[in-house]
Amino acid sequence: MKTYILKRLLLMIPTLVGITMVVYFIVRLAPGDPIEAMIRNQSGNIDPKAMKESADKIRERLGLFEYHYLRDRLFGPEKSWTQKPKGAWFWIVDSTDKVASAAVGYVQWFSRLCVGNFGESLKFRTSGGSRNPLLLILERIPVTATLNIISEIIIFIVAIPVGFAAARYQGKWFDRASSFVLLAFWSIPSILAATVLIGYLGVGSGGLHWFPIGSLHSFGYEKFTWMQYLGDLFWHATLPVVCLTYGGLAYLAKMGRASLLENLRADYVRTARAKGLSEERVVYHHALRNSLLPMITTMVLAIPGLIGGSVIVERIFSIQGTGNLLVEASMAYDLALIMTETLLYGVLTLVFLLIGDILYAWADPRVRYE
Amino acid sequence: MSSLVPTTDAVAAARSRSYGAIVWRQLRRRPSAMISLGIIVLMALVAVIAPFIAGETPIRWVEKGEASWPVFRYLENLEYAGMLAFVLALLLPVTVRLVRGRAERAAASPLGRAVLIHAAICVAVTAALFVARTPERRYGFFLERASEAESAWFPLIPTPRHPGYESLAHRDESPTWQHPLGTDRLGQDIVLRILYGARTAMTIGFVAVGIGASIGVALGSISGYFGRRVDLLLMRLAEIVMFIPQIVLIIIILAVMPSWVPPLWAVVFVIGVTGWTGYYRYMRAELLRIRGEDYMTAARALGIPTWRLLFRHAVPNGMAPILVAATFGIAGAVFLEASLAFLNLVQTPSWGELLNDGRQHMSTWWAWGSAGAAIFITVLVYNLLGEAVRDAIDPKLKI
Hints:
The structure holds 2 protein chains of 2 kinds.
Chain A: H1 2-29, H2 34-43, H3 48-62, H4 66-75, H5 78-82, H6 91-95, H7 97-114, E1 121-126, E2 129-131, H8 133-168, H9 173-187, H10 190-200, H11 226-264, H12 267-274, H13 279-302, H14 305-308, H15 311-316, H16 322-331, H17 335-363
Antiparallel strand pairs in A: 1-2
Chain B: H1 8-16, H2 19-28, H3 31-48, H4 50-53, E1 60-63, E2 66-68, H5 70-74, H6 77-90, H7 92-105, H8 110-132, H9 141-146, E3 151-153, H10 190-226, H11 228-243, H12 246-256, H13 263-274, H14 277-290, H15 294-301, H16 306-317, H17 319-342, H18 351-360, H19 365-393
Antiparallel strand pairs in B: 1-2, 1-3
Helix pairs in contact in B: 2-19, 3-10, 3-19, 6-8, 7-8, 10-11, 10-13, 10-14, 10-16, 10-17, 12-13, 14-17, 15-16, 17-18, 17-19, 18-19
């Protein structure tokens, strides 16, 4: 088992390098430029020459020519770089300077990362100085995590009894009604649900104005008592949580139903019945425990989604969470921020995949990893 | 002795029940599956013939005493390809019946053969179209000339620029007989926007999932069959692709694409190229199982070349989970595209865009309501069909 975990941990490294490399190259090789995106944001489309001049000025002020210096230090000065190297393996690098600087930039980003430097976010630069992308993400994690933890708890509490009851009374009215409702829930797009909820219960024109959107706290929430704080939080979180919940709920409940049905048909259940155990004991003690297994794994695998899983809902309700941050970052070509978030998400997902596998082996002694 | 040798009738009976036929018979028994399939065919039909129902290009006109059909000159090559694909898909049962005898003598799946033949026809005709024909696609060209023509038949549903249609007088109208689903803020008929949204949804659904499933099947079968180092390498590749944030990719790629590439194709490309990992994992798992089966050992002992072993014997036997996953995948892709358009990240004529427009003015319930209903019905229908196919193939499939 220990060797297995070690092997898996080691295999994570090439995967993470691969993910970051792909994302880095795509962002860097896109014709857009963070500085130009910023200028266009402020003063609209201006003519290319003026754009280049002002972009260069800003770049110089921000010290963004660094990677050119590093490239010179690594591969020699500019002149030799533009000449085609003879028989060199990096002939592609030679053909366009952009690829070259991206490659050098990646090496630089990676080496900085190794000493714990995540770069600087350009989009969220303040007048006082640059912002650390890791801090930016950490600042927003509580919002996204709150939303997702609440909705996962609700999903778990509601879906399991519903799914199991449907399986227990297969073909009866509860099974039929619940499978109909669950299928509908599974197919309602969250954008439609959000539109209706915001429009009628939220702040839409002609709506009832029952629920606020756009944040998870009221103004001045720092002075609330904890009861007020919680009430305020739940009030703000109601609509987004509903949108995040129903789809996963339907999925997990269907899975629970299928899982219990499969176990009820298994041989060991027949054995238990043949022993003369009461129906209650057979179902709740034997079958139910076994059918909880795959559901727990599913929930563990859903945890990384706490960080990146709710982009659409966050965007619709304009909640300042990590998903929204990622969209803003990619629209502004904010390389450091995109990379940090990708890396964080990749690490979390890989770690929880591993935890899920280990938990599965721990809960089910038949599963063995070499 | 004679009782041990099967009679020709028995052989014929066993033959006529091929795997595909058994699954189809199971599927036929489920009303939900049949209704879903009917709705899908109807939607595809509507998407394919949309320019004849709604639009601003005259279907037929009489110009200087000569009658002609301008809409056929206006249609793009890919639109013709879509129509052809639709007709060929409907004709699939006929081809299956035609090739059955030959295919069974060659021990191949008749359905697989028919699909390959139709795909080849579709690709060949599309290629020929691109070589032979350039559509007259200048903006408003036909509309301008239509005013000078002696007579012109227009599609039933007009656009706001249509002559004689006072679009501004028809803004935000609730449903009437003239506009069964009402109009939007520009006086456009909602039916028109729903029809053109259906085209987007169908393209995304079929093309993106087709690309994804093809890549997944190809890599998954190689990975599962050869194992070892190839498997390890491809598994890492799949992990990398799985964890690349799709939204970043779509935003950046849309910015990269030159302006002549419609944003729709950029989205199709991204969803296709990043969405293959699920199919890859199913195919890999199937191949790991199939690799050890007796018929594979027998085929290997016969000295059949590896590629033939792989794509003729192993892959067709592992297609069941792919089929189910692809059906659910279409629902997912349609939903993703609608969400992207809803969030204004992609500019395509889409149901998501219509829903977002309607959201700004909740009182125009017909606008957001019909867009929402269209997305909901599409996703529901594919989910229902996916469940039915899974139950028909094997209720224990874990997808």
